[in-house]
Amino acid sequence: MSGRFFWFCVTLIGYVYAGYPALLTVLARLRPQPLFAPPADLPIVTLLIAAYNEQNVIAAKLSNSLALDYPRDRLQILVAADGSDDATPDIVADFADCGVELSYRPERAGKLAAITRALALARGEIIVLSDANNLYDAGALRALVAPFADPSVGATTGAKVIAKGDGALGDSEGLYWKYESYIKRQETRLSSCTGAVGEIMAVRRGLLDQPLLPEARLMADDLALAMHVLKQGYRVVYIPNARSIERVSASAQDEQERRARIVAQRFVLMRHSHRMLPLLNPLLVWQIVSHKYLRPFVPLAMIGALLANLAAVIRPAAQGGMLRLASPFNWVMLALQAVFYALAWMGGRNECRGIWGKALYIPAFLVNGNRAALVGLYRFLTGRHTSLWNRVQRRERESSASEQRRVNPSYRVLSGKENNP
């Protein structure tokens, strides 16, 4: 029995991390590569920036937004700063002369609620959702709006890129996002993305005017909006050349907290699948189950594989004494798991340097991410999950003028206050 259970757990882990991407790659090659020509007339775009207590980065974000390669008369920049009790609203007000608008009320109801309220002020045909702690490439908006010439496209999402120079943690998180971007690229080619990157996502205004299901308030905004678009029969398209550059989390603990919140909200989606999934599209349902539903169960499969392996090793000795050993295969599997977790422990103890540090941080990143998934599952089961978003601390240097110019050569200081905090 332990042998079958072991292989079930290993198969689940292998399918989630390797099998599903491999199947996607094969099936996607049967479809033509999508080509998106830029529209003849650029649509009016509202860049809606969620900014809860972002006084350290909001000025740099607004300067970056004002320097984007998009006609200024067709771009509205709107900041949703609900609940902020720092200087964020005041800093945004300093940019009023540049045309930046503010949506603010003191009460805090969560990121999705702040976005929904700010939509009443939005004038764009396309709503681009962004966060305050990331910077766009100059051509990101043009790339995001191009696919909307296809009437089947309801939303687009870009690539999240981790800024260089953040050590092994940044390298491992950057590798993770490259992996996720590959999956999104194949999903787009096959049919549609099953999710979006919340800090660089564009949605047709008409779809946002449709009321979200009440359950969406308990989910992350990017997941809730992506499911909302898919449920209405539209596609979500990944655009790799629309890039959002972001600093890595300040610590592995901050990243773990972020992942725990995401996993808890993903279980909310599972609980309300009958209302939120596009059930009339079996191909898309398979993609969502493979990409979104199975991954939170990987930590349980990892624990199950280890326990089953231990049982297979211990049982022979318990039944026939120490002279009766388990099969060499079981010992090899147990040794491989022990080495993997030992490397993860070494990588998680401190910020290792050099190529070995990067190698050690990959298992550490995987183990920490799956440990966060267990925390998210616990919070979901105990009802402790929340839609409220707490700002994750990012590495410093994220708002410096030098970094702005590296992302966008046309960057210039647009406000004398707080532009280089």
From TrEMBL:
<keyword id="KW-0808">Transferase</keyword>
<keyword id="KW-0472">Membrane</keyword>
<keyword id="KW-0328">Glycosyltransferase</keyword>
<protein>
    <submittedName>
        <fullName>Glycosyl transferase family 2</fullName>
    </submittedName>
</protein>
<feature type="region of interest" description="Disordered">
    <location>
        <begin position="399"/>
        <end position="421"/>
    </location>
</feature>
<dbReference type="InterPro" id="IPR029044">
    <property type="entry name" value="Nucleotide-diphossugar_trans"/>
</dbReference>
<feature type="transmembrane region" description="Helical">
    <location>
        <begin position="297"/>
        <end position="317"/>
    </location>
</feature>
<keyword id="KW-0812">Transmembrane</keyword>
<comment type="similarity">
    <text>Belongs to the glycosyltransferase 2 family.</text>
</comment>
<dbReference type="Pfam" id="PF13641">
    <property type="entry name" value="Glyco_tranf_2_3"/>
</dbReference>
<feature type="transmembrane region" description="Helical">
    <location>
        <begin position="360"/>
        <end position="381"/>
    </location>
</feature>
<dbReference type="GO" id="GO:0016757">
    <property type="term" value="F:glycosyltransferase activity"/>
</dbReference>
<keyword id="KW-1133">Transmembrane helix</keyword>
<feature type="transmembrane region" description="Helical">
    <location>
        <begin position="329"/>
        <end position="348"/>
    </location>
</feature>
